[in-house]
């Protein structure tokens, strides 16, 4: 772990102590600046492992962080989480540029706290661009897909 983490070792120790006294096995914490994951090891006396990365370190394109408010043609993330283009690995994507969609068309899914949440187009149009990379951490309101009307 690098010393550049915006949380101190004491902060992480406090979060870990809270988890130890709960029934949860892991915590994924994402902010606009970083992503932190703590996971309990197997066994009664196993400790926690930690991983973190800067929000921009996931390989996401810089454009993927743009707000949908700045782009009226964008379909926005309804909640924060991990955005996926397809229902499962190896499956074809929900939509591709050139596809016609309606308001109820599922254009992707966002995984939040192990729950898969469908993202609907919300209006009719043609997909012009998929902005957010597959597997990218996204913030609520972030532009995911650009739709031409």
From TrEMBL:
This protein is a component of the acetyl coenzyme A carboxylase complex; first, biotin carboxylase catalyzes the carboxylation of the carrier protein and then the transcarboxylase transfers the carboxyl group to form malonyl-CoA. CDD domains: biotinyl_domain (cd06850). SUPFAM superfamilies: Single hybrid motif. This is Biotin carboxyl carrier protein of acetyl-CoA carboxylase. Residues 66-148 form the Lipoyl-binding domain. Keywords: Biotin, Fatty acid biosynthesis, Fatty acid metabolism, Lipid biosynthesis, Lipid metabolism. Pfam families: Biotin_lipoyl. The keyword Signal does not apply. Residues 57-67 have a biased composition (Low complexity). InterPro entries: AcCoA_biotinCC (IPR001249), Biotin_Carboxyl_Carrier/Decarb (IPR050709), Biotin_lipoyl (IPR000089), Single_hybrid_motif (IPR011053). Pathway: Lipid metabolism; fatty acid biosynthesis. Residues 57-98 are annotated as: Disordered.
């Amino acid at each position: 772990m690098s010393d550049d983490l915006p949380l101190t070792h004491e902060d992480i120790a406090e979060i870990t102590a809270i988890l130890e006294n709960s029934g949860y096995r892991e915590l994924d914490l994402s902010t606009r600046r970083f992503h932190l994951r703590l996971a309990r090891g197997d066994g009664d006396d196993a400790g926690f492992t930690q991983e973190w990365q800067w929000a921009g370190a996931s390989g996401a394109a810089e454009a993927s962080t743009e707000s949908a408010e700045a782009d009226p043609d964008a379909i926005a993330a309804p909640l924060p989480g991990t955005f996926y283009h397809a229902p499962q690995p190896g499956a074809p994507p929900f939509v591709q540029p050139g596809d016609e969609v309606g308001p109820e068309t599922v254009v992707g899914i966002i995984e939040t706290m192990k729950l898969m949440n469908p993202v609907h187009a919300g209006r009719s149009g043609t997909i012009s661009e998929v902005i957010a990379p597959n597997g990218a951490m996204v913030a609520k309101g972030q532009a995911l897909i650009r739709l031409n009307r």
